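Practice problem: 2,4'-dihydroxyacetophenone dioxygenase
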Amino acid sequence: MSQPAAVGSRPVDTERIPWIPQSPGNSFKPLRFLPEDRGWVLLLRLEPGTAISRHRHTGEVHAFNLSGQRKLLETGEVVGPGGYVYEPANNVDSWMAVGTEPVIVHITVYGAVEYLNERGEITRRYTSSTQQEVYRRFCAEHGLPMLDLTA
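Answer key — structure tokens:
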């Protein structure tokens, strides 16, 4: 019987990954892009007062606050350092960085993120592929090496 090929650990030096702006006050560091658009892992940074508008996740999400605070706008709950939020597939939410320091969240996204307008219509959609392309373009535009962050 043949043994499966060994796959080694793949550490990533996050200091070598730039903060990539997505919108004013909102930037991310990609950590891993899962194949076949299954999802991605990232650090998300929001400056105080910056909001993540209403969106839906097609798969589950795991979010761990590393620093700063964020307010879940649907419930009013405030999540601080060390706080963990699980979002099931099809969850719709929005949140905002509160307090005086940026919030940094380690997030694992399965599936896509679909941003919604007030009528519930999709206005934009992020997948592992779209986020990997944002990373590729940012590195090319700034003359930075692109790390292999594929699974």
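Discussion: DSSP finds one helix and twelve strands in the chain. Students who identified this feature from the tokens alone can consider the problem solved.
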